[in-house]
Design brief:
Oligomer: single chain
Shape: globular
Number of helices: 6
Structural class: mainly alpha
Strand content: 5-15%
Strand order of the largest sheet: 1-2
Helix content: 40-55%
Number of strands: 2
Distance between the termini: 29 Å
Length: 140
């Protein structure tokens, strides 16, 4: 995968596009959009998730294609790319690695699904998510 995507915004667009190409994304988004902390998806989190997703060669190829298409189109804002939308895309792409749920007390719990992946970068990503979910009003 070409690691030099031009900006955090391009990375966020790529994450959203990767998530949206999966038919299961629409239902996932509907389930999560009203329960997530209202927060911006930090660029560091977007970059870490993109790097993790790109370990799959097919995903890396799609990410490169999306980046090339975006660069060719210029750096225009795309309507509908909200921060909560990017945050949901991040959670969707992580769904096989990290399970997130609320316990009966309303606190968020995080479970790393694959012990062999319970190293960098999954642990780093989980730590970033825990901070976002536990901070007041979702502010890091």
């Amino acid at each position: 995968m070409n690691g030099c995507y031009r900006s955090a915004q391009v990375k966020k667009h790529i994450l959203r596009a990767l998530a949206q190409q999966d038919p299961a994304y629409a239902a996932f988004e509907a389930d999560w959009k009203d329960v997530l902390p209202k927060t911006e998806c930090p660029g560091e989190l977007a970059e870490a998730v993109l790097e993790l997703a790109a370990r799959d060669p097919a995903v890396a190829a799609m990410a490169d294609d999306y980046a090339e298409n975006m660069e060719g189109a210029g750096t225009y804002a795309v309507p509908g790319l909200t921060e909560i939308g990017v945050f949901i895309a991040v959670l969707f792409l992580l769904r096989t690695h990290i399970k997130i749920r609320r316990n009966t007390d309303g606190k968020w719990e995080f479970l790393l699904e694959h012990k062999e992946m319970a190293q960098e970068p999954i642990e780093k990503i989980a730590e970033m998510l825990m901070k976002l979910f536990s901070s007041p009003a979702g502010k890091p």
